[in-house]
Amino acid sequence: MTARGLRLRNGRRCAVSVRFGSTPVMACRYVECAWQVPKLIDELASRMHMYPAVQTYLDLDHEAPDFTALGCVVLVKAGSIGLVSQFNFSSSVYVPVERGVNINLEGLESSPLIIKRKFPKHFWPTFKWGRKGYMQTRWKMNNM
């Protein structure tokens, strides 16, 4: 495995490690690079016109006690608008997905559209847990 530097748009440098001789893998520190994820999603959405509805949930607040570093990105094709709904866990009803790019970064724990939990540390006391957890969304396609 070799390593070399990569310059980001903001002038910062991140290490890039090359695995198997060809596939570059970012090895940036999370704090330095996490802010780029919403911009990346927005840029992708602007270039992928066949997906006019984008629902994104990103856990980026590394200082929060229930931080998991998890994320969920759902792209809905133009022909499926009106046929795809997301479950609202608070009201127990499906909400139709509308056109637009929705990037949710804050208040994920209180969002009615996802369930985000960090695993309790007592699950496996011999492992260092760090940020392990899960994020759940529920969808309905073609009214099924």
Q: In percent, how much strand structure appears in the residues?
A: 35-45%
Q: Strand order within the widest sheet? A: 1-2-3
Tell me the overall shape: globular
Q: pLDDT average, as an integer?
A: 79
Sequence of secondary-structure elements? EEEHHEEEEEEEE
The number of E-state strands comes to 11
GO molecular function, one term: inositol-polyphosphate 5-phosphatase activity
Keywords: Hydrolase
Task: Explain what you see.
Keywords: Hydrolase. InterPro entries: INPP5A. GO terms for molecular function: inositol-polyphosphate 5-phosphatase activity. The chain has helices at residues 30-33, 36-47, and strands at residues 2-7, 13-19, 23-26, 53-58, 71-76, 84-88, 93-96, 100-104, 115-118, 133-136, 139-141. By secondary structure, the protein is mainly β. The protein has 2 domains: 1-33, no CATH class; 34-141, no CATH class. A 3-stranded antiparallel β-sheet has the order 1-2-3, with no helix packed on it. It has a 3-stranded mixed β-sheet with strand order 5-4-8, with helices on one face. The chain has a 3-stranded antiparallel β-sheet with strand order 7-6-11, with no helix packed on it. Strand 2 (13-19) and strand 3 form a beta hairpin. The protein is globular. The chain starts with a strand and ends with a strand.
